[in-house]
Amino acid sequence: MANKKYQIIYADPPWSYYNDTTLDSPKNVKEGGMRYPPYKVMASLEIKALPVASISDKNCVLFIWTTDYHLERCMQVIEAWGFKYKTVGFAWLKKNKQGKPVCFMGAYTMKSGIELCLLATKGVDAHKLVEKYGVRGLIESEREEHSKKPNEARDRIVKLFGDKPRIELFARQKIDGWDVWGNEIKNDIEL
Hints:
Layout: E1 6-11, H1 44-49, E2 56-66, H2 71-80, E3 84-95, E4 104-105, E5 110-111, E6 114-122, E7 138-142, H3 151-161, E8 166-169, E9 179-181
Parallel strand pairs: 1-2, 1-8, 3-7, 8-9
Antiparallel strand pairs: 2-6, 3-6, 4-5
């Protein structure tokens, strides 16, 4: 598989809630809550070391999911991948099955019930790549399986930036129009 260059990169890294500097990973951890996700996690050093710069076009936007607990590490990943942080692309307000916001005190921090998808750019400023303005940043939707992000985020990215070459990193499913890379799916590229 020859690597393509992408103008849109969408990523949901498998952040570890363990001591990030001593984690051997990817590592399976027992299931049971946010601290023990039902998938292999990675240390932020491993995430930073991925050669994402090699698949990003000279002008590219990155959307990367993070929790408040990993915000500082996410900023480091953005820089290591060759991007500059610009703003929050999306804020996902998670709801339970009754439609109420999910908020509670967790093991590490207050679980605000909100996850952030940061927007970063490489090359030109993001506003020069935008094809349609007025795309909303707040996503309100029910939580589904552990760590699954709302499909609506992908739709809004395409609406905002158009039908450009795009890839989802750490993907769990193949979505029409998106190349994928991850350990739970047949990959479209080598990384």
